[in-house]
Amino acid sequence: MDKKLITGLVLAGGRGSRMGNVDKGLQPFRGSTMAQHVIDRLVPQVGSVMVNANRNLEAWLELAAPVWADETAGFAGPLAGLEAGLRHCVTPWLLAVPCDSPFLPQDLAVRLAAAVEDADADLAFAVTQEPGMRPQAHPVFCLVKASRLPVLSQYLAEGGRRMDGWYKGLKAVEVLFDDADAFRNINTLEELHVLDDTLPPTLAKVTSCLDGYDPDALPVRDAQRIIRDFVQPVRSIEKVALRAALGRVLAVDVISPIDVPAHDNSAMDGFALRGDDLLVDTPVTLRVIGTAFAGNPSGLVPQSGECVRIMTGGVMPLGCDSVVPQEFVKQDGDSISLGAGVIRPGDNRRFAGEDLKAGSEALKAGRIVRPADLGLLASLGMPEVAVQRRLRVAFFSTGDELRSVGEPLIEGCVYDSNRYTIYGMLQRLGCDFIDMGVVRDDPQALEDALRSACENADAIITSGGVSVGAADYTKQVMGKLGDVTFWKIGMRPGRPLAFGRIKSNGRSAFLFGLPGNPVAVMVSFYFFAREALLRMMGADAPLPLLRARSSVAIRKKPGRTEYQRGILSQGADGQPEVRITGSQGSGILRSMSEANCMVVLHDEQGNVVTGDMVDVLIFEGLM
Ligand SMILES: Nc1nc2c(c(=O)[nH]1)N[C@H]1C(S)=C(S)[C@@H](COP(=O)(O)OP(=O)(O)OC[C@H]3O[C@@H](n4cnc5c(N)ncnc54)[C@H](O)[C@@H]3O)O[C@H]1N2
Ligand code: MOO
Ligand SMILES: [Mg+2]
């Protein structure tokens, strides 16, 4: 069938009641509107497209398609829309599709048309079948002979409303499509958001990708994956002087503008010569015709039997490919002699570009600049480097029992240590920070603090108040301000965690509500917040776990991840060996301070026997 014989009709006249009574098709989706996506899919398949809509007609007209309202009053459903479409259809066939199915098949018209032609039918509609399920009809996706309008009008006049009810007396055929997802229709705003890959992901979207997601029993790796999928890099670049780039995250790939080194040069102080002059078993004598200093090309071109005195780094004279170190020759006036086989042709010569070739990638974006990188960048002659702007992280502690250092400690109170461990860990990551002090267990004070943090920072870290205590208002307030979830993670310590993104006055920030216990807060930071913050900074720096032999037995329950404070040292055989520090209670900071590593006992792992290999995270050098 020639596609010019078909008019496409987008059915957009519904109430959108499950979407909060909005005009569904006009809802933003992937950079335009949902209906626009449907129209874009339809246009290549048909001669022309029109729309059936009952509200916001001006907005619909902007879609550059004719718009027709129902003629049957009172939002009578898609059949009323089909009737309006058929009334204005000037082609022999009409292809109807709903406005909320932006993924409709690209071969919908061709396949339905082939079916009506084969069967000499009045109507064809789509059917899908999932494995092991009964076929599912999609009667709103139908190709209808325009001349059958009177049958439909009569059905409507008699009060009929069923999409698959009106064509009982007509010849209708089903067409089976393989891809059920192509007929997916979007009913709620949440669903629309979840499917819109141009919008920042929602937690619902991210968690829907996990099998058996249970916020109350979440494995560590699932929590890490959700966090990884949810946080997004802050895209903001600045140029800094080379030295200031130390510890910062490179924002772009660095391509070498030059060959390093720029010339073939000598690796030794000695004599540059032509490899052809070297004889396999006979000593040679060469005449020295001049000297090449580093930084001062000699311009000399030795002939056969000649050589040039050269310093380390000096540019190789033309025709020379080898250098004999001065210790290996006998010099006599202006000639040198060297024994057979002292060097081979090509020895002690450094090639132009052997370190880096012009145009090659010297460093990748996302790298955290280390001292060697500073040197490398300097070797390329770069005075400035493009880096990600520093991440701004606001943090505060929650709890009426907390006193800040410098204040007197009243009965029942403790000094706030979490703000100091958090400060230390953020500082090591290279973040800018805003220390917001201690916030009382008071809903208004918490809301004010979270809003202020959100408006001034990229990320917020709080500690305390995420478990189940009666004064833990933190969760309630966090939930109110945004897309935040509360987890019980299968780990020890650090079981409760709040995570998400909150909004205030048009600004948003990622939120990590870490548990209050002083060791739990550090473990949660290292194993969840750290990677997320690095990701926001555009950096890629996975936690470096090493293997070490356990010099002790460790009790461990399978089914949760345990982080034990450990001391790593060199065993009697020179291999790394780890033992556990004293008490592992999640309030005991002293053993954390004594430790130089964490022993990571994974989910599935059970008791550790002396001599078993275990994973270890070393604190020193940890970003
Ligand atoms: N019935 C239950 N109780 C608790 C559970 C549970 O599942 N059921 N989980 C326990 C676990 S695990 C942890 S961890 C804590 C986490 O509690 P919160 O995040 O609500 O923290 P708080 O109750 O505010 O404080 C816990 C503890 O830590 C001390 N703390 C808090 N902030 C600081 C700070 N900045 N500096 C020093 N010490 C701090 C606080 O005084 C408490 O002793 O909940 C368990 N309970
Ligand atoms: O996180 Mo809690 O520290 O497991 O006691
Ligand atoms: Mg609590």
Question: Can you tag this structure with a few keywords?
Answer:
metal ion binding, molybdenum, 7-stranded mixed beta sheet, nucleotidyltransferase, binds molybdate ion, alpha/beta, binds magnesium ion, binds ligand LQZAQKY5, Molybdopterin biosynthesis moeA protein, domain 3, Molybdopterin biosynthesis moea protein, domain 2, 6-stranded mixed beta sheet, 5 domains, 623 residues, Spore Coat Polysaccharide Biosynthesis Protein SpsA, Chain A, 22% helix
Concise description?
Monomer. By secondary structure, this protein is α/β, with parallel strands linked by helices.
SSE layout and pairings?
Elements (H helix, E strand, L loop, with lengths): L5 E7 L15 E2 L2 E2 H9 L5 E6 L3 H5 L5 E2 L9 H10 L5 E6 L9 H12 L3 E6 L7 E10 L3 H9 L14 E6 L11 H7 L7 H5 L12 H11 L6 E5 L12 E2 L9 E2 L3 E4 L10 E9 L13 E5 L11 E4 L3 E4 L2 E4 L10 E2 L10 E3 L7 H9 L4 E5 L3 E7 L3 E2 L10 E2 L2 H12 L2 E8 L3 H14 L2 E5 L10 H8 E7 L2 E2 L3 E9 L2 E8 L3 H19 L8 E6 L10 E10 L5 E5 L8 H6 L2 E5 L11 E6 L5
Helix pairs in contact: 3-5, 8-13, 10-13, 11-12
The structure holds ligand LQZAQKY5, molybdate ion and magnesium ion.
The site of molybdate ion has 8 residues, from loops.
Mean pLDDT: 94
Apparent shape: extended
The residue ranges in which pLDDT falls below 50 over 5 or more consecutive positions are: none
Question: What name does CATH use for the topology of the largest domain?
Answer: Spore Coat Polysaccharide Biosynthesis Protein SpsA, Chain A
Residue share in helix: 10-25%
CATH class value of the largest domain: Alpha Beta
Which molecules other than protein and nucleic acid are bound?
A: ligand LQZAQKY5, molybdate ion, magnesium ion
Largest sheet: 7 strands, mixed
- Give the termini separation: 65 Å
**What would you say the CATH architecture of the largest domain is?**
Alpha-Beta Complex
- Count all strands and give the number: 35
Give the full name of the CATH homologous superfamily of the largest domain: Spore Coat Polysaccharide Biosynthesis Protein SpsA, Chain A
So how many helices?
14
Question: What's the Cα radius of gyration?
Answer: 36 Å
Strand content: 25-35%
- Domain count: the total is 5
Query: Helix/strand/pairing class, anyone?
Result: alpha/beta
